[in-house]
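Private note to self, pasted from the team thread so I don't lose it. Backbone tokens:
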């Protein structure tokens, strides 16, 4: 091998090593920033079942998204309910669902037909189940700020 060739081969080898290290480093970085889903529920299977059932019957997904499910035909800018149990506690949620006028608790910026309806007429047992289920919907600490901002954006219509 001539000297020039050795040089070129050396350079190629060095480039490969650098690229491999760069990739390995990037992979450790991206597993640090985490692409896992940050939402989880602490509900027992019974509560999850009962809560989802009421959620479905009351057609909350007309306006809200939860577990990436929402009604594509409606584009109501209501806050997502993923992680809501880390933002609000069960007592608040029960009070909100029970309020004859939910907007007296949480003012709305939307047209009346898009606003959070009152579920005061739902049996208290169902409101309790729903509130307990919503309270079980948590978000990991590392995504809490992001969830708060998203909620605030939806509620105010502004950057928060
Ligand atoms: C017609 C659309 C609509 C339906 C149906 C609806 N919501 Fe809402 N909801 C909203 C909107 C919009 C808001 C934000 C406040 C407002 O604008 O009235 C809201 C707010 C909330 C909040 C408070 C969110 C926060 O950021 O604190 C909770 C909890 C909630 N809804 C749960 C439910 C549940 C549970 C159901 C079904 C039983 C339901 N919603 C059905 C539109 C709806």
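Design output:
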């Amino acid at each position: 091998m001539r000297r020039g060739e050795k040089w070129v081969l050396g350079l190629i080898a060095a480039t490969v090593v650098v690229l491999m290290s760069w990739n390995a480093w990037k992979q450790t970085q991206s597993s640090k920033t985490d692409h896992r889903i940050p939402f989880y529920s602490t509900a027992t299977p019974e509560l999850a079942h009962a809560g989802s059932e009421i959620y479905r019957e009351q057609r909350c997904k007309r306006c809200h998204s939860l577990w990436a499910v929402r009604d594509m035909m409606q584009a109501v800018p209501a806050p997502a309910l993923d992680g809501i149990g880390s933002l609000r506690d069960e007592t608040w949620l029960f009070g909100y669902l029970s309020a004859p006028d939910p907007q007296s608790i949480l003012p709305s910026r939307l047209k009346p037909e898009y606003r959070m309806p009152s579920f005061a007429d739902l049996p208290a047992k169902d409101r309790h189940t729903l509130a307990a289920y919503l309270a079980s919907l948590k978000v990991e600490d590392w995504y809490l700020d992001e969830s708060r901002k998203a909620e605030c954006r939806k509620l105010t219509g502004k950057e928060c």
